[in-house]
Design brief:
Order of helices and strands: HHHHHHH
Distance between the termini: 52 Å
Shape: globular
Number of strands: 0
Length: 192
Amino acid sequence: SRQFRFVPIVRDILHIIMTISMFIMVWPWGSNILVIPQLILFLITSIWFILLALGLSTKILSIKMCVHGIYHQLYHAVMMLSMSWMLFGMYKMMRMMQPKDQMQTGFATSKQDMNMQAGAMSMSLWMIILGASLILVLLIGGIDMLLDAIKRIRQKTIKKGETSLRLPTLSLANFGMSVIMIFMMITMMIPT
């Protein structure tokens, strides 16, 4: 319906922000960006995707509007929760490595060398269990996304108004994002 036209725009903007954040966090200069606002943003984004799933389940929103169904919206919520998990882990790691007089609201330091062993050791058991659970869901969901893309390409299932590669491309992009997130999360949990 017309009142929910903003849904696909917000969804796309949130995915762009997640992609930019993931790109930034792997570079040394990325540690100069405040982590707490990002962490809060991705927690709110998780809630957004949960609300989309609820909207679909109650028929307030349509699949056409959201592109993906309930399962995919929940999967996107898990992706955003995984971003929050990574940001929280990075925040704890950087706080552990900073002298108390240099602590800020972010995690920027004058030294850019990160000691991953100190980071992995700073993770509590609940963080590791939560991270492993998120990795498992990302792995299962990522494989499902890949199989969905293959099925759509093989069957050439095109609904009215869709271009032939739109949904398979989205599924492949979600699979790729899962692989990247899983790799980043594992490297944060294992001491080097």
